[in-house]
Specification:
- With 153 residues, the protein is an alpha+beta fold.
- It has a single domain, classed as Trna Endonuclease, Chain: A, domain 1.
- The chain is built from 3 helices and 7 strands.
- The strands form 2 sheets. It has a 5-stranded mixed beta sheet.
- The longest helix has 21 residues.
Length: 153
């Protein structure tokens, strides 16, 4: 007797996910009265340049995921003119947006690192042996969902 198994789901490319996330963020900003310009990968810290309805400008670094996971991002010096929008672009469900300042991202990275170190100690490993893969936990980012009010007008 043969068994029929479902074909494994193909993993979506990170390139495809990132572009979907950037266009989703640009669309949401335009609907809110902002003017946007995509940097097309030519800027190291900003994926989208934004001009607010009142004329002020700022940058956005978009981080995209297609399923709930860890947001891979490195700690950087605080800049009041750069925001992060972590964007979930799942198949068959609405997009979700999490808006954070650099200070909030840095705090999330430090919180996740502290958690990883505690976990390593609890498992009998050295806290210094954890992998250098900084980022923000999904649970930390959730409190910043739809915080469009943070962005300069």
């Amino acid at each position: 007797m043969s068994t029929v198994t479902a074909a494994p789901r193909k993993r979506r490319s990170s390139h495809q996910t990132q572009w979907a996330a950037q266009f989703a963020v640009a669309s949401e900003l335009c609907k809110r009265g902002y003017e946007v310009a995509l940097t097309m990968g030519n800027h190291p810290t900003k994926d989208i340049m934004v001009c607010g309805p009142s004329g002020g400008s700022f940058g956005i670094d978009v981080k995209g995921l297609y399923k709930r996971n860890y947001w891979a991002v490195r700690e950087k010096p605080e800049r009041p003119d750069v925001f992060y929008i972590f964007t979930l672009v799942p198949e068959g469900a609405p997009n979700r947006f999490f808006i954070l300042t650099q200070a909030e991202v840095n705090a999330g990275i430090r919180e996740d690192l502290a958690r990883a170190r505690r976990s390593a100690v609890e498992k009998g490993r050295s806290p210094d042996a954890i992998a250098d893969f900084p980022g923000v936990a999904w649970s930390y980012a959730e409190e910043f969902e739809n915080r469009w009010d943070k962005l300069p007008r």
